[in-house]
Amino acid sequence: MLPEMLAQPAADGAWLAPAKLNLMLKVVGRRADGYHLLQTVFQFIDRCDRLHFQLRADGRVQRGRGALGIDPAQDLVVRAALALKARTGCDAGVDIDVDKCLPMGGGLGGGSSNAATTLLALNQLWGLGLTQDQLAEIGLGLGADVPVFVRGQAAWAEGVGERLTPVTMPEPWYLVLTPPTAVATAAVFADPALTRNSPPVKMADFIEGDEANDCLPVVLDHYPSVAEAFHWLEQQASAQGSKARLTGTGGCVFAAFSTAQEAQQVAADAPAPWNAFVARGRNRSPLFGPA
Ligand SMILES: C[C@@](CO)(OP(=O)(O)O)[C@H](O)COP(=O)(O)OP(=O)(O)OC[C@H]1O[C@@H](n2ccc(N)nc2=O)[C@H](O)[C@@H]1O
Ligand SMILES: Nc1ncnc2c1ncn2[C@@H]1O[C@H](COP(=O)(O)OP(=O)(O)O)[C@@H](O)[C@H]1O
């Protein structure tokens, strides 16, 4: 068991909420409540939303700046803060501003990451003294991807993403392409064509090159703009010995490169409707300070 790491604000006082990539994703079964059992590998990238917390004396939780189109009451940062208050009976308050950089509904886990950063930051700022295990459990109630962001270590994940084994992997440069379409996670998991019985694999199979994402065929079928971006990247990446992959249920697609320059070259050629960015893979979440 690795020792617990401490989340910390950046030099300018902002608390980072990084994105994740699913480097592979198998759907290996379904729970009685309809949720799907997965096997996946999570790695962070150094592309982040930035959160600001200002304590209030009146016990209220309010969101100021935030993601366009997200009602403050529904924002995962507010829900995370309220979940902490409900769990601990704490009567402290906070104003939260979210400077959004990560695309939403792209499979980069920004909402889950915002929730995890809020749990970790307020645990310290409100002096609650909860353990990482307790925060991960509260986080799981907000979203399946929250626990990995709470723990801050790249991981092999099973269950719905809550059974986590930390892993150390190469940290390549990723080119991430965001097609102009949000993918509805629920619709992908509800699709009759989704393969739900992949034979379970081991981390060793992933290391040996099994990087498949079972959601890919369904997403390519229903989202033409994701298909176009994926096929374009497939061509560009294969010319450099890399492969295109889908993160989570998409619609972001990505490819790994050994240098920033290679990734940036492909990004520079990306057609206009797609937002392309280059970020470094990280086994330790940038929220926990420099590697
Ligand atoms: C697939 C993954 C892989 O990292 O990532 P994303 O592509 O969303 O980032 C996650 O497991 C996404 O988890 P989470 O973020 O909690 O999913 P939600 O958007 O809350 O899920 C929406 C709906 O999808 C279905 N769902 C989700 C996860 C899962 N393991 N099985 C499911 O069947 C459920 O119907 C759920 O109500
Ligand atoms: N602070 C937030 N940031 C992003 N999304 C949020 C936030 N609060 C609530 N959401 C909701 O969570 C959904 C999933 O967002 P996100 O985690 O960014 O994408 P994904 O699950 O595809 O990786 C969004 O479509 C949005 O409705």
UniProtKB/TrEMBL annotation:
InterPro entries in alphabetical order: GHMP_kinase_C_dom (IPR013750), GHMP_kinase_C_sf (IPR036554), GHMP_kinase_N_dom (IPR006204), IspE (IPR004424), Ribosomal_Su5_D2-typ_SF (IPR020568), Ribsml_uS5_D2-typ_fold_subgr (IPR014721)
SUPFAM superfamilies, per database record: GHMP Kinase, C-terminal domain, Ribosomal protein S5 domain 2-like
UniProt entry keywords in alphabetical sequence: ATP-binding, Isoprene biosynthesis, Kinase, Nucleotide-binding, Transferase
Residue positions binding ATP: P103, M104, G105, G106, G107, L108, G109, G110, G111, S112, S113
GO biological process: isopentenyl diphosphate biosynthetic process, methylerythritol 4-phosphate pathway; terpenoid biosynthetic process
Annotated active site: K20, D145
Reactions catalysed: 4-CDP-2-C-methyl-D-erythritol + ATP = 4-CDP-2-C-methyl-D-erythritol 2-phosphate + ADP + H(+)
Protein name, UniProt field: 4-diphosphocytidyl-2-C-methyl-D-erythritol kinase
